[in-house]
Amino acid sequence: MENRVCKLFNIKYPIIQGGMVWCSGWKLASAVSNNGGLGLIGAGSMHPDNLLHHIRSCKEATKNPFGVNVPLLYPQIDEIMEIILKERVPIVFTSAGSPKKWTQILKKEGVIVAHVVSSTLFAKKCEEAGVDAVVAEGFEAGGHNGREETTTFCLIPQVKRAISIPLIAAGGISSRESYLASFVLGADGVQIGTRFALCKESSAHELFKERCRSLPEGDTRLLLKKIGPTRMVYNHFCEQVQQAEDMGASADALRELLSKGRSKKGIFEGDMIEGQLEIGQIASMVTKEERVKDIFEDLCR
Q: What is the pLDDT of residues 188-234, one digit of tens each?
């Protein structure tokens, strides 16, 4: 049987690498694409000129399809999209906002568009907006999450019944078993974040990778629900956020806590105390350093 995700993106395996902030540079994206999946550059942590560098470097490193993940609430979204179109990036995954405006602009230029959702309602709206595929992400995922707190394996079969376009499962998928289970529940492909975030080719700091690979089960928290639910490792900064929320801190007060480049400090610069360490629940199952090649050999054996 022909796989719809493989056909849509012209890839060998229905495996998409999440476009994660501070982790998903051109080295990771090109390695995933070279191994038969779809690599994504994470634009959410890049200024326009930096994104341009990563796109051009990725073109040199792989001849296979790759894409860019773009949070639609990005403050320089017009510049980001202009670069993507000028550089003729073939695939764009959008998130964190309505796909209505940019989907049609991108598709007119021949770009394949997928959008990340956390509910069946938003999945249906995406299909109405004309996207080519939907990524349904459960709240096990790291980083920014939906407010519904629906788990991946509850979400996937419900979204499957509601849409006709290709469905990509995301959140808590790491092992071969969870990879295969996603297809049993109706997914056409999977998006994997945490396992790729902690691999050799990820641009995350080694201290961040080591910390996440040593996490016990249950050592992440889903916080910041007033401004945007975010899953992170429990550390001193996370404790500060939890205490502030327990005391009824306002959305503005929580934004002030985040105003010091916390995710860059933690994920990219390696500050394990004051940094915001975004990672998925599945991190407790990732215990050793791997290369992208090792991950594909495990999932696709």
A: 999 999 999 999 999 999 999 999 999 999 999 999 989 989 999 99
At 158, list the tokens.
Answer: 């419900």
Q: Where are the domains of the chain?
A: 4-203+285-300, 206-283
Q: C-alpha angle with apex 112: 263 to 49, nearest 5 degrees?
A: 45
Biggest CA pair distance of the chain: 54
- The half-sphere exposure of 131 on its side-chain side, counting CA atoms within 13 A, is 29
pLDDT range class, residue 98, cuts 50, 70, 90:
confident
> Is pTM beyond 0.85 here?
yes
Tokens (6 digits) for 168? 């990509």
> Backbone phi, then psi, for 274, in 5-degree steps?
-100, -5
Rounded Cα–Cα distance for residues 275 and 236 (Å): 8
Q: Are strands 39-42 and 15-17 parallel, antiparallel or unpaired?
A: unpaired
Q: In what order do the strands lie in the sheet with 143-144?
A: 143-144, 230-233, 220-223
Q: Which fold has domain 4-203+285-300?
A: TIM Barrel (3.20.20)
